[in-house]
Amino acid sequence: MTSAVDVHLEVFGTPPAGVWSAPGRVNLIGEHTDYNGGLVLPIALPQRTTATATARDDDLLRVHSAQAGERVEVDLGTVGPRSPSGWAAYVAGVLWALRQEGHEVRGLDVTVDSDVPLGAGLSSSAALECAVGAAASDLFGLDLLDDDASRARLAAACVRAENEVAGAMTGGMDQSAALLCREGHALLLDCRSGETSHVPFHLAGHGAGYVLLVTDTRAAHALNDGQYEARRRASEAAASALGLDSLRDVDPHHLDDALARLADDEQVRRARHVVTEIARVRATVEALEADDLESVGRLFDASHTSLRDDYEVSCVELDVSVEAARSAGALGARMTGGGFGGSSIALVPESDAEDVATAVAAAFAERGWTAPRSFVVTAGASAARDA
Ligand code: ADP
Ligand code: MG
């Protein structure tokens, strides 16, 4: 296997100054809650994106990606909202955002490689941004990896890259996961206050031993066809109809009263998902702390039902993968990520993991769909310098 350093040397003709990497993530529960000021509970994946880089003393960004199969050059002076287009936006956007925040950042020569599946809802985009952000932080002496507060600032810059330059209006969960997660732990992130805590996530240690099985359905429904923005708008409209800043402020114990005050049936269903999903994140944390995986499984199931019926962001491939996993012995399963395709997760007895993956694949084959990819994941570490 050619090393990242060899590839860099081949592409740019000079050895790199270092290698940095950042993980993809999978959200255990708390979907479409981030932009509602709610709670999310992601783990960092063992799968990572690597940025092998050298600082330049001019404003040129030269970036090669093994996944894109091309090298792109961007003059940093031309970077701004929606410019450049294409995958280089995620890289150039980070340097642009750091400059916007007042950091002295110049150009880079970067080679990118990744084993995070792209576009599978496992956040290859934030892994790319955060790997590049980590490289820029070290190479330009920004010290943004030193502690959680600095890492949160780097995460915010990466969010700006994704929102403003790449033009994807996602919340802040992905970048926080890539920069703040700890190995063996899920990250409980309060998207309103920015507060974080680390929840032990060691399924193998629980009695018979369980694993988290991720299935990339490979269903290609574009997330950016307006559905995400529509859900965001409906949530905001529901909050404002209730006279609240965000749906986070709805007391789950008085949910029915709040819903009764909404005239619009669509808003009722959207709000019900958001409020109950935030409560399910709290319940999942409690269940994990109590080693009660049966409850975690039930919460996964309830989350999926809510996302499918109330928030309407699932799709038939996600529903089939979840049903098939449950029938083959999963304690619980749900879609994860923004929806309309992407991945599902299932909590599965270790001894049944292969059978569950086979059952999901068979359900897809029966329907003539592209074969899904299933793999067991553990909670990995956040962005770091590797070499
Ligand atoms: P996800 O983050 O769930 O994988 P997104 O649509 O948010 O899905 O991000 C995927 C996009 O990010 C890709 O289409 C590509 O533009 C960019 N991207 C991510 N990783 C890489 C990579 N290793 N090389 C080039 N582009 C990448
Ligand atoms: Mg993404």
Would you kindly provide a written description of the structure presented here, covering whatever features stand out?
- The protein has helices spanning 4-12, 88-100, 124-139, 148-165, 173-180, 227-241, 255-260, 265-289, 293-310, 316-327, 353-366, and strands at residues 18-27, 39-40, 42-55, 60-65, 70-75, 108-114, 185-190, 196-200, 210-220, 332-336, 341-349, 373-377, 384-385.
- By secondary structure, it is an alpha+beta fold.
- It folds into two domains: 4-200, 2-Layer Sandwich (Ribosomal Protein S5, domain 2), CATH 3.30.230; 203-377, Alpha-Beta Plaits (2-Layer Sandwich), CATH 3.30.70.890.
- The strands form three sheets. Strands 5-4-6-3-1-13 form a six-stranded mixed beta sheet, sandwiched between helices.
- Strand 10 (332-336) and strand 11 (341-349) form a beta hairpin.
- Helix 4 runs antiparallel to helix 5 (173-180) and helix 6 crosses helix 8 (265-289).
- The protein is globular, with a radius of gyration of 21 Å.
- Bound molecules: adenosine-5'-diphosphate and magnesium ion.
- Residues 49, 65, 67-68, 87, 90, 112, 114, 118-125, 128, 168 line the site of adenosine-5'-diphosphate.
